[in-house]
Amino acid sequence: MDRAGFPLARAGMNVGLFGGSFDPPHAGHVHVTREALKRFSLDRIWWLVSPGNPLKEHGPAPLMRRMTAARTLLKDPRVTVSDLETRLGTRATADTITRLQAIYPGVRFVWLMGADNLAQFHKWQDWRRIMQMVPVGVLARPGDRISARMSPAAWIYRQSRVSGSASHALVRKLPPAWCFVNLPMIDLSSSAIRAQSDWR
Fold first, then answer.
1. Ordered alpha helix ranges (H), the chain
2. Phi, psi at residue 65, to the nearest 5°?
């Protein structure tokens, strides 16, 4: 991190952006992160812990609690847990990516998401702009594979799909480009953990 709390990255690096509320972070997030590093040939992954998710009815736990829990859970020098959206003052993913591309010229960014997010990607603000700005890596989660592959976003951008066997090449593709990778998944969700614990 630099003095302003921004992750360090140099031109030519491949950086995955993994956004979410992480409310709470869990082993499934860690598993997806490690697989994404390997499958998409990434040098770094930044967890972008969001102030809140406009698609969720209830607000998340306090940001610093989620940040601390994430840093305790995931200790890998290639992964940075960050509150970049708060520091940048952005809420929409498209705006966050735009700012990061301006701040880090020459860094190749890939937006990472679970298959559950691809299923509802068409509901995101400026989602088509996201597809035009960066390659998108989609990591399958249990029960979400069929709905994700049949989603409006997958259909509209079907010609831009990179095969799972070529996932290592995704980071060098010009957008729009996206890749769906099937993983041996850990069936965990933040909502299930909240329901079974006193997280909040």
1. 27-39, 63-73, 84-88, 93-103, 115-119, 127-133, 145-149, 152-156, 190-195
2. -65, -40
Q: Which sign does the torsion angle of CA 110, 108, 37, 174 carry?
A: positive
Backbone φ, ψ for residue 116 (5° rounding): -65, -35
| CA distances to 11, 23, 26, 59, 101 from 53, in Å | 30, 10, 18, 7, 22
- How many residues comprise the chain? 200
Q: How many of the other CB atoms lie within 10 Å of CB of 122?
A: 14
Q: Which residues contact 176 (CB under 8 A, 6 or more apart)?
A: 131, 132, 157, 160
Supply the pLDDT for residue 140. 85
Reported as a single tens digit per residue, the pLDDT across 154-180 is 999 999 999 999 999 999 999 999 999
pTM as predicted: 0.88
Report all structural domains of the chain as residue ranges with CATH numbers, in order of start. 21-195 (3.40.50.620)
